[in-house]
Write a sequence for this structure.
């Protein structure tokens, strides 16, 4: 190869590298916020999945919500790859709100400390944002479940997922996506406020309902988040979940998301609420409470639900759940 030809190729390679850097710098930045409270044993999986994102630029912020385990030590092992912020224990909503204030980028991900992102989760969402009109503030995706050791949990095939544009009333009927599955514009919190710190669960559902009142939400059919199911999940506390889900519905009622005169819609909302609570009780073996909640579900709405509403293909799934609660030992 001639010296002149070699120089031309070197210049060409340099231009390609600079072009790649410029394209990267033109990408909107994404801040991945990981609230952590005594989850040091799961936290490395969440951090590693964030570091392995195919999209850039990304910053990773760990909000230590007053942990008493070795969370700080775990985070220190990552050095400058992550930002560490400690605060006195104030709850999940407060930790997320701290992350919102501290984030330097305009797009945010709220990754629970026991969950994991697929490598292309952020890239997929940002591509979708580029395709959607600017009034879309959230792009979410579906999720899959893993156990405490990271093994995939087989999901039942009777669930149907409502994908595409999601309305506030859709989320009011039932939660459509996990908090770890969301990429949201930071500006949405300027317009709608931050997470409600008085809620000890279902705070994400409340937040997405409020955002959906002013902006649009898109749910992608890709399952790009792994939700870890274990005995310490907040969703395992049935009484707390029941109380806070009811408070979210009351807030929506006061906000008139669905007009009062559409009483049949509110009956279905209350019925689905009781049905979801019954499933939580079933999951922890409290069958008597599950039967009570299922009975109330039928009382509010004895008719079948549309697939779009409850997301279940089996027409008599509540009867099936009731039979399980009555005749099964767990």
């Amino acid at each position: 190869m001639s010296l002149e030809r070699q120089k031309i190729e070197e210049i060409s390679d340099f231009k390609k590298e600079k072009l790649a850097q410029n394209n990267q710098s033109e990408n909107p930045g994404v801040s991945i916020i990981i609230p952590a409270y005594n989850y040091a044993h799961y936290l490395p999986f969440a951090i590693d999945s964030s570091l392995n994102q195919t999209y850039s630029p990304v910053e990773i912020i760990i909000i230590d919500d007053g942990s008493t385990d070795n969370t700080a030590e775990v985070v220190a092992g990552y050095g400058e790859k992550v930002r560490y912020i400690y605060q006195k224990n104030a709850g999940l909503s407060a930790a997320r709100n701290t992350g919102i204030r501290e984030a330097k980028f305009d797009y945010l991900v709220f990754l629970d400390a026991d969950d994991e992102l697929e490598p292309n989760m952020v890239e997929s969402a940002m591509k979708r944002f580029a395709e959607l009109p600017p009034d879309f503030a959230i792009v979410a995706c579906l999720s899959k479940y893993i156990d405490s050791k990271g093994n995939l949990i087989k999901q039942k095939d009777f669930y149907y997922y409502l994908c595409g544009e999601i309305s506030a009333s859709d989320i009011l009927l039932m939660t459509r996506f996990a908090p770890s599955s969301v990429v949201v514009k930071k500006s949405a919190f300027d317009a709608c406020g931050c997470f409600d710190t008085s809620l000890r669960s279902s705070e994400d559902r409340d937040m997405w309902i409020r955002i959906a009142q002013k902006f649009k939400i898109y749910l992608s059919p890709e399952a790009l988040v792994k939700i870890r199911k274990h005995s310490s999940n907040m969703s395992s506390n049935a009484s707390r979940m029941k109380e806070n889900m009811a408070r979210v519905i009351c807030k929506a009622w006061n906000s008139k998301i669905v007009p009062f005169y559409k009483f049949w819609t509110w009956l279905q909302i209350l019925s689905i609420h009781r049905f979801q609570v019954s499933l939580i009780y079933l999951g922890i073996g409290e069958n008597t409470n599950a039967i009570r909640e299922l009975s109330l579900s039928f009382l509010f709405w004895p008719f079948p639900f549309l697939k779009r509403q409850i997301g279940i293909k089996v027409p008599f799934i509540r009867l099936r759940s009731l039979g399980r609660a009555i005749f099964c030992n767990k």
Notes: Residues 28-228 form a domain with the Spore Coat Polysaccharide Biosynthesis Protein SpsA; Chain A fold (CATH 3.90.550.10). The chain is about 45% helix and 15% strand. The longest helix spans residues 3-26.
